[in-house]
Amino acid sequence: MNQSVVRRSRTLSERLYRLLLRAYPPAFREEYASEMLLTFRDARADARCEWGVAGVLLLWGEVLPDFARSVCSQHARHWLARARREYAFAGKERLAMAALFSLQVAQRTDIGQARTRNEDSLASLIPDDDEVAQRKGALFVVADGMGDHGDKASELVIQQVTQSYYQSRQDDVPTALRDAITQANMALRQANERRQSHDADAREMGTTCVAAVLRERSLYVANVGDSRAYVLHAGQLRQVTRDHSMVAQLVERGELTPAEARAHPRRTLIYRALGGADVEVDLFVESVEDGDTLILCTDGLCGVLEDEELRAIVARSSPEESVHHLIARANALGGPDNITAIVVRVSARS
Amino acid sequence: MHENQRNQHDQRDQRSPEDLLPLTPAVLHILLALADGEKHGYAIMREVKERTGGAVRMGPGTLYGSIQRMLNDGLIVETREHADLDRGEDRGEERSEERRRYYGLTGFGRQVLQAEAHRLERLVRIAQSKRVLPGLSLGGGAS
Asked: What share of chain A is helix, strand, coil (3-state, %, to 5)?
């Protein structure tokens, strides 16, 4: 009789704690919820063993305040990190490029009309420190996640790329960019392996990544997948990256027109992405001039808008207005995917 | 397997351990618990509770929140993950066979712990010199 009561209180405690764990932010939960549940189970077993049912109640008296405090602080951390990443530079003119240029940066991401979650992530970093700005330049990254946890994949890769790039002692930008993306790929692969060791059915997660560095008079772009970098120079729009998608190959071979590619049912199929064993990174180097504009975007934008429309919007508007119009336009055209854009205007300092 | 992580730590090691001081009580106690070997989450919790006579109790939320920050700061690493069946039999209760993550100190984590211990030692000396704490008449010379 007594035994059955104890059994019930055990399953009840565990079930209750499992329920409480849902209050943590998803990224934290994904990483630690199963460990926390194990820890709680052990603590409950010990408390029960030493003090019986009273011990379990005492444990709850400790666990509840701990839960309330840590849920609050985890959410605060989560939102702070997000806010820092997404809104810090939006629409503000920054005068951080020490010697030659000032950069006007705007960025925005939108869920679109057809998806239930936004799996795109983005970051713009302009170092405050002049020495770092001169050595490393400003970094802009866009990633389009896919798979079971595409949002987590793109977020992880953005975080890893920005962190690795600025921590690297390598001053050669292309090498540092390639290393940063390779390291991000390893981190994502490890996350995939860890998930699959817990759950053999887990589908792998992956992401595209396009990263651009503006330093002095040069633009460096690294790319994997079908997110894009464009440069608007003297009113002309030029695509810097090459998509690693099946339809792009068909267009290059002349078997499809760009318009047909945009309407193709398999247009989202890509043959290179982060998250697997090895990754081949394309690198491009260009020179930039006063008045040039850099655009990074996911296929939710460039797969929907024609290049000419993209050019017209960016050519006639400020970066802040541009990102706004671009996203509104992609949504008006059906918004089939998440939409993300970073627009950076380069001006010579007077 | 952890080569990638180690590289990152090498780069972080340009930082001075003093930059992270003072440590929060949770971080200090977790570092102390790991000073004599790697442990999994619940073993850390139990040791902290026992060593402080129950004065410091950490719930799972505080524990894993701190672990997350310490991993980011390069103070600790995940050392291995394996099935753990300890202590189950003597209680006749079935134990979970799930995989547990173990954590261990990094070189930098140990330096930070030492720096914090020195900082606290200096504090204790000041307290003694002001007669807040009884002095430990070590090595003579005093009085």
From this structure: 50, 20, 30
